[in-house]
Structure formats: C-alpha cells, structure tokens
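ABC transporter permease subunit, pasting as requested.
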Amino acid sequence: MTQYSLKNKKYLIISIFILISVWQIVAVIVDNGLLLPSFFTVLLDIYKIILTDNFIILILSSILRCLESFIFSLVIAIILAIISYFNKFIYNFLYVIIVFLKAIPTMAFIVLVLIWTSKDFAPIIIGVVISFPIFYDVVLNSLLEIDKNLLQMFRIYRVETKDKIITLIIPVIAIAIKKVINSTLSLIFKVVISGEVYAQPEYGIGSIIQFEKMQLNTSKIIAWMIIITVIVCFFDLIIDKVSKKNTGE
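Structure tokens follow.
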C-alpha cells in the first residue's frame, strides 16, 4: 500500500476542521491573543498580509533562495557522489565532512555563516549545507546498490564510460532523487527561512517574521506559518504532477 493510496480528501477536510475547531476552543479558553490568537484573527491577518504591497516580493525572494540552494546542493551532491563512487580516497575524505555537517547544530552554523558571508547570501549557503548530505547519501547509496551483474555485463561488452553514465548511472540517480525531492525541498525552504530570520535580508519571509516577533505579534507570526505551509504544499503538488507526467500516470 502506497502513501498516495492512504490519502482521502474527505478525511483530510474533516481533520483540518477538527484541528481548527480545537484551536478556536483553546484560544477562547486561554483568552490571550499574545499566547494564542483565535483562528479568525489569524485568518484576518493572512488577508491583510496578502494585500500588502511587498507580499509577492517577500514570497518570491524566499522561494528564489530556496531554489538556488536546491540547485547548488543537488548539482554538487551528484558530482561528488559520482566521484566518491569511483574513488575511495575522495569517499573517505568526504565521509568526514558529511559526518561533521550532519552533527553540527543548524543554529550554530547559521551564526557562523553570517560572520563569513553577507546577509543576502547566508540563507542560501545554509540551505545548501543542510540539504547536501541528504542528496549526497541518496545518490551515493543508489550507485552502490546497482546490480553487480549489470556492471559486469557492461564490462564484458566494453560499454564506454559516457554510455554507461547516460544509460545506467543517470537513470539510477534520477529515481533515487525522485524519492526524496519533496521532503528535501520542503526542508530547504524551512531552513532558508530560518536563515533569513537571523540574517535579516531586505526581502524575505524570515525577515518579516523576525519583525513581527519584535512587535510581539503572535497572530501575524502564525499567519506567516500558515502561508509557508501553503507554499510547501504547492511545491509538493507541482512535483507530484511533474512526476506523474514523467511516469505516464
């Protein structure tokens, strides 16, 4: 049974309704807009945010940083994973770096990157650093799992390296990346926004969230969280549509 076969629109709508109802009931009981604003207050703030002049610029700035991080990370991971597959020294050299990148706290690295780079470039680097180990491991493991008999057949028939890459390695990598692209792209988007909160670029969702935090405007912070969720769902929808189109579903 696949994840998609478990999805049911009716149950999703009911779940959302239950969550909103619980939220509203708790907000009424708490009766403190600073701690937990009501659903309708947040809904009104979402409407106000969408109508602001710089809304589109804020959204596009963060999405652009996310896509830049995604592309840089993916390209670097694919290149280095292929090199590691063919070279043991490179594999062991990168192994140390990958372990370090996985272990280092995200917030600590954000602070370090802000010291090294500009406020506009820092969120992009943070997105790359967080997602690179994921793509690298996925690509490298997909190459290591290639059928040995198939590789032996390529050797017997003396298939050129170029043809081997085109007919075997690239399709294997594409299938592997397809499995993690949704979750990784969502992660990159969240990490980039976290970087914006600290870096404070002129335009970015993270910058405006930090501003609302300074104003103690809980309602608008939650409003932006919901907007971010909608954007991530939009990403997932596009990727699913493209994937189904490529597979002919």
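Note for the archive: The longest helix spans residues 161-199.
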